[in-house]
Amino acid sequence: MLANPSFHGGPLQFIPTVRNELCCPIQPHRRSLASSTLQNRRNRRRSSISRSFTQFSIRTSEDVSVLAADSAGVQVSPFSVRIPVGDRHIMVETGLIGRQASGAVTIRDGETIIYTTVCLADVPSEPSDFFPLSVHYQERFSAAGRTSGGFFKREGRTKDHEVLICRLIDRPLRPTMLKGFYHETQVLSWVLSYDGLHPPDALAVTAAGIAMALSEVPNSEVVAGVRVGLIGEKFIVNPTIQEMENSKLDLLLAGTKNAILMIEGYCDFLPEDKLLEAVEVGQDAVRDICKDVEALVQKCGKPKMFDAIKVPPKELYKLVEEIAGSELVEVLQIKNKIPRRKALSSLEENVISILAEKGYISTMEAFGSTETMPDLLEEDEDEEVVVDGEVDEGDVHIKPVTRKTVPLLFSEVDVKLVFKEVTSKFLRKRIVERGKRSDGRSPQEIRSIDAGCGLLPRAHGSALFTRDETQSLAVVTLGDKKMAQKIDNLVDEDEYKRFYLQYSFPPSCVGEVGRIGAPSRREIGHGMLAERALQPILPPEDDFPYTVRVESTVTDSNGSSSMASVCGGCLALQDAGVPVKCSIAGIAMGMVLDTQEFGGDGTPLILSDILGSEDASGDMDFKVAGNDVGITAFQMDIKVGGITLPIMKQALLQAKDGRKQVLAEMSKCSPPPSRKLSKYAPLIHVMKVKPEKINLIIGSGGKKVKSIIEETGVEAIETQDDGVVKITAKNLSSLEKSKAIISNLTMVPIVGDIYRNCEIKSIAPYGAFVEIAPGREGLCHISELSANWLAKAEDAFKVGDRLDVKLIEINDKGQLRLSRRALLPDAEPEKQSTKPRSASLQNDNVVSPRTPDTGKPKKAVTVSKDGSASESAEPLKEKSVPIKVSSPATDKPQLKKSGSNISSRSGNAVVSGESKVV
């Protein structure tokens, strides 16, 4: 994608070097010329060449004098200005730090401070169709009083969210750069102070725009950026982080005082008219900032290097159009991308070959720019010519020489750049005049769509979305919190994302050979756009406790691959059984702004579902995602001086019609999404216990939870401070076993409970310690072990024996006192009995409060080796009972109940009064 196509010759600074190389081979005439006439001729020629150098060295001398003055200590004094933004002011200061940079500025909002510099190379780069601008943004941990948590305390590679802010800075600056300027330009931005209240991203965009305006870079207008939030029904400019927590909209807008250059944002199904209102509010704020910055630039700005701009002459455009015009019209009618690309490449080579044969292309590498060759080998216009027959002092005949016309010389790279611009011109002209695009569609027509789900049998969810020559393979993976993505931020808090989308764009998707490695900035940006577009349709964590990862691999690309990722990702989520709220589709809009230039009436032409060539040659790339009700994500880049609100309104309304068509095609997906959990997806059980019981599950140093995982074979057990426990397992049996152990660990024993078949864990001189539930032991004193007197507990029992006990006391420390004697036939009747209650392992019911004994049978809890539990009503007498799986009473969970009740393998959540298994 070309953000600012520039087709022109090399910079002017190359010219003196070129002329010097051309002058070196010049030698005097071989004949001996003793006359003063020839000597005068040489002197005049040298004088002429010297004058030609002088006219190009004047600027260099002036620049050197300015640099000398700066190095001598002449510096701009610090200057600051307060600019109102929203309900507060931002402070802009220049001249204090970064004094050797071409442009440097610090900008402050609250206690958040951004420092930004702009520098440019002394020597211009080779001409290309892409302005050599690089942006680097870094958040220093010291800005929030922290250091890096790793071994190396220096900040590492750029994080994803820093890359996204780099893109936010780059995209609005690029359209303001003038064609023909090839000095490499670098924007560096650092967060020096962060207060946790005022976000730095919009501030960094404004800081970069101000620094660029203060520098020598010849950009067209001042750029500024703001964020707009929607809280209730009120739009807020540059809201704080706390305010954004309640905002329905997150819009970042950048532009000039006259037009909008870039917007990006996310919202919760916001209608088009509301979005336009937000854009208008942001545009007004940007306009006010730009006016104040212009006053600052007039006082502190450096002279712009307009004299370094060099564009190709119109003659080259005419030559290319004459040679390739008719063939170019035919090539642009080729529908498929690869054949069209090869045909254009062949035609370009043909144009270069023809121009070379005619002598228009210079073979000298020193020609970095378009240059008219002077008649260096001919006589000067003021040369004295000896009339035929007349003899000079050297007795040498000088005949008049006829002047030859030397054609213009162009470098090969100039021809390639001009050919690309001419191709763009012919493409735009075809669309405007004929109303037909390269693939034969009308401006509002979308491409053919095909989609299918369930392609990958072992994946939890998969979908292949194809839009003509653009295709995305989306895969969904479900997991627990261990699969969540950890986010490093300036605030000293761990942040985890339970949903994230990762986008990859391999070179094979465009039929090319390229680098494979870390994701590019473009891949990170497109992935975040698709992720934020799908975020609003995900269920809350309480209803669906999974971490969700979506991978979108672009397998074919010819425009709108990020929007294809939105469509494919939505279908893959449905195929994985994620209960999404609705379907989401995305579409990319393009534009031809000045249609009058290409035979139209001047009204901007909006294109739906643009191709790659229409993106590169057009004036806008506007991506919009949502459903038929509202928008969830949007991103717009402008490659011209900006657009107005009426144009944006037209594009949004046309995008809504396009989304409806895409959603209709997605509903015809074949095979359709399964809409249920895969049998290979993990099971997650959510239960809640009293918060003070969490430590019993974790154990000392995490030993207990590790032992439960090893014993039961579950994948993970996650505990939270609020008492929520999540168990992740591959099968139902291990899940139930771990659930039983945790239930027993966190149960609330009540005096009068009877526990059957309990194991003696250890014996002391004063009694035996009996395990009434896994991990819960109580003391059965020697006096309570038997109805008869015992001298030692070892006389009647040993470790490993099983017996029935009754809970007769809980002391202040929570220690349990048990009695076997109370259950023997000759024991005295207890004065306290239990109220009938029921409990089961499956439902995790809790123990009801005790009431005085009214003669009703008591509840007995039987615990076996396999971890199962059961309770039964029985009279107060000892009897043999079969070993059963049982569970002691547990705390009553507090999770919200739900009306839906679906099996775990059908993809629906089972929500009971206390826990949920998915």
TrEMBL record:
GO molecular function, one term: 3'-5'-RNA exonuclease activity
Stored HAMAP family: PNPase
Domain of life where this protein originates: Eukaryota
GO cellular component terms attached to this protein's record: chloroplast stroma; cytosol; mitochondrion
E.C. designation(s): 2.7.7.8
All copies of domain S1 motif, residue ranges: 752-821
Organism (species): Anisodus tanguticus
Protein name: polyribonucleotide nucleotidyltransferase
BP GO annotations: mitochondrial mRNA catabolic process; mitochondrial RNA 3'-end processing; mRNA processing; rRNA processing; tRNA processing
Region Disordered, annotated ranges: 821-918
UniProt xrefs under Pfam families: KH_1, RNase_PH, RNase_PH_C, S1
Biased composition (Polar residues): 835-848, 897-909
Gene3D superfamilies: GHMP Kinase, N-terminal domain, K Homology domain, type 1, Nucleic acid-binding proteins
UniProt main location, coarse: plastid
PANTHER family documented for this protein: POLYRIBONUCLEOTIDE NUCLEOTIDYLTRANSFERASE, POLYRIBONUCLEOTIDE NUCLEOTIDYLTRANSFERASE 1, MITOCHONDRIAL
Localisation: Plastid, Chloroplast
Family of the protein in this entry: Belongs to the polyribonucleotide nucleotidyltransferase family.
Lineage of the species this protein comes from: Eukaryota, Viridiplantae, Streptophyta, Embryophyta, Tracheophyta
Top EC class, one word: transferase
The entry's keywords: Chloroplast, Exonuclease, Hydrolase, mRNA processing, Nuclease, Nucleotidyltransferase, Plastid, RNA-binding, rRNA processing, Transferase, Transit peptide, tRNA processing
